[in-house]
Backbone:
């Protein structure tokens, strides 16, 4: 029985590696920082390092745009509503860029901790005692790319994370029609480096972050993110992920809805239509 279980685990790991290798659309960049805390990733570790390097390396322009508020363009008003959000958004992105250590996180509350990244497998729950839920079970049930559990320093990367390309190779900007994003815009942000930024927003927002266990819950779809009020826009990681993806040179998106003009705030019927049209987007990280 033990040998059968080992064989199954090895086959599972091989499948993830093959899937990840098939998704890399360009050679991995030279790694700028090997000091990241990355665990249990084996041969996939260079992918995580590369995505972190690329994601952090492209935040400078997003920080500059955020510091300008609405005048900085690139959807800032759509995703954060007003200039009062400029300082907290720029501060959040700067914390991610430098991976600022923070105190009070388990398992070492007295020590300042940076985010630490863990590749999930069937034994992760046993290796990280104290976490509130089995990451492997969560990944399989939710279809998520990753998850951060409140109060912990670990960001868990689901096997599905490695099915994403590391970085975009073309432009995925959604069009704006009738003051709404078209309903294929999820491609804008579905890349490894953006997913890591998303999880680090959870990490730095801490208990303020919207998530699967909050009321209201975390929001994922483009038009629903635009539909959030100013406070929840700042607490919703997907708003940051979309803003960063829109600002990057690779995508350079400029068109965005006006959140203060019809049809916003969206009616329940419009949101339901958005859910049905973007059904494939439900797989995005639901942490």
Residues:
């Amino acid at each position: 029985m033990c040998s059968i279980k080992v064989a199954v685990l090895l086959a599972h790991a091989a499948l993830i590696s093959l899937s990840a290798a098939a998704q890399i659309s360009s050679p991995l960049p030279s790694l700028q920082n090997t000091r990241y805390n990355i665990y249990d990733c084996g041969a996939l570790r260079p992918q995580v390092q590369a995505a972190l390097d690329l994601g952090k390396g492209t935040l400078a322009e997003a920080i500059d745009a955020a510091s300008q508020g609405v005048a900085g363009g690139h959807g800032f008003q759509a995703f954060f509503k007003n200039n009062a959000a400029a300082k907290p958004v720029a501060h959040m992105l700067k914390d991610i860029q430098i991976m600022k250590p923070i105190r009070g996180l388990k398992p070492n509350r007295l020590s300042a901790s940076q985010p630490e990244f863990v590749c999930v497998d069937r034994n992760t729950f046993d290796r990280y005692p104290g976490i509130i839920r089995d990451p492997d079970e969560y990944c399989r049930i939710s279809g998520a790319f990753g998850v951060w559990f409140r109060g912990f320093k670990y960001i868990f990367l689901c096997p599905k994370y490695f099915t994403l390309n590391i970085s975009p190779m073309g432009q995925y900007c959604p069009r704006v029609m009738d003051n709404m994003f078209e309903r294929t815009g999820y491609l804008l942000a579905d890349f490894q480096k953006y997913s890591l930024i998303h999880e680090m927003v959870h990490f730095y927002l801490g208990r303020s972050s919207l998530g699967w266990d909050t009321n209201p819950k975390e929001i994922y779809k483009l038009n629903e993110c635009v539909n959030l009020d100013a406070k929840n826009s700042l607490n919703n990681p997907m708003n940051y992920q979309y803003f960063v993806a829109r600002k990057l040179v690779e995508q350079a998106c400029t068109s965005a809805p006006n959140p203060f003009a019809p049809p916003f705030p969206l009616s329940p019927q419009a949101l339901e239509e958005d859910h049905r049209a973007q059904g494939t987007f439900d797989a995005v990280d639901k942490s």
About this structure: The chain has a mean pLDDT of 82. The beta strands are 38-39, 116-119, 146-148, 154-157, 176-177, 180-181. Residues 150 and 206 are 7 Å apart (CA to CA). The two ends are 34 Å apart (CA to CA).
